[in-house]
Amino acid sequence: MRQHGVALVVVLWVVALLSLLAASFGLGVRREARLAGYHVQVPHWRAVAEAAIHYAAYRLKLPDPQLRWRAEGNVYDWRWDGVPVRLRLADESGKVDLNQAPALLLQTALKLAGADEQQAVELADAILDWRDGDDDTHPHGAEADDYAAAGLDYGPANRPFRAVEEVGMVLGMTPDLTRALLPWVTIHSHRNGIDPFSAPPALLRALPGIDPEAVEVFLRGRREGKNPPFPVIPGIPIHRGQSQVVSMQLRVGEGYALQVAVRIGPERLDYLEWQEVPLADELFAAEDSSAAKAASPEAMSRE
Predict the structure, then answer these.
(1) Count of CB atoms within 10 A of residue 208's CB?
(2) Is 56 helix (H, G, I), strand (E, B) or coil?
(3) Which one GO biological process term can you cite for this protein (predicted)?
(4) Are 198 and 94 in contact (CB under 8 A)?
(5) Using one digit for the tens of pLDDT, what is the confidence trace for 151-184?
(6) Cβ burial 60-94 (10 Å sphere, 16+ → b, else e)
């Protein structure tokens, strides 16, 4: 009897082990199937994204203000081949150029990203030290000795920024502050100031010494397609005229996200940046609750 009992226990253990192996195998098969399906979908999503980029460029150039899309951080919904696309458009001339902007404008962008007054002053000077070609330290900046004292094995590049993400290497920048700063800065405008006709409203409202009422009057006129004057702000250069470089963030379907910067010419698009990014739910979180307000009422679709 004891031998039969032992045999029964062994059989039960073998059955349990086989069941576990079968479940593990089934899970692996399902995972592989999902992965294979994702890789099949990616080329389709990428093609849809490229179609959306060209369509957005077309809409940005339309003469009719009722049909023309705006690149002031606006978000639009679109659909192609049954795939939903969400786009955020921003004209680079309305952003703060890391390679050209003066300290006061850099401080404005940093405070928008969450830096306090002292942080903004110090980081703006450190950005100036990173991009200039000398070893002279700005009053609150950082040169090679400061990076070494902080335990870093690199120093300031002493050249222009080659990508906006490079600002995260500046002494004092944190990952969270870098992520919050990136929407406000560029390397593509090549101007020391901003164009108020394409700058995000939040950036205009944050400019130092600006009259809040004057900003709202200007923004109202801008929305109505008028040509209102923008207040003069000491230390903040103001330019008029779009750079023709537009950054776009895209969410395609449920599994693909992309950031690009394109120069929109009369006959063609030139891609300056193309970066596939992890699909984060927060990419458009602020707009998801009010997408209908931003979306074009007659945005075309192809089913």
Answers:
(1) 13
(2) helix
(3) protein secretion
(4) yes
(5) 999 999 999 999 999 999 999 999 999 999 999 9
(6) beeeeeeeebbbbbbbbbbebeebebbbbbbbbbb
By CB neighbour count within 10 A (0-12 exposed, 13-18 middle, 19+ buried), where does 109 fall? buried
Task: Sort strands 96-97 and 245-252 into parallel, antiparallel or unpaired.
Answer: unpaired
Amino acid identity, position 301: S
| Amino acid identity at 162 | R
Range 233-246 average pLDDT? 85
Q: What number of other Cβ atoms are within 10 A of residue 51's Cβ?
A: 17
Residue 89 phi/psi, 5-degree rounding, is -115, 135
Between CA 282 and CA 297 the distance in angstroms is 24
The token duo for 174 is 């944190």
Please state at what angle helix 103-112 crosses helix 117-131, rounded to 10 degrees.
130
Which pair of tokens denotes residue 244?
């023709």
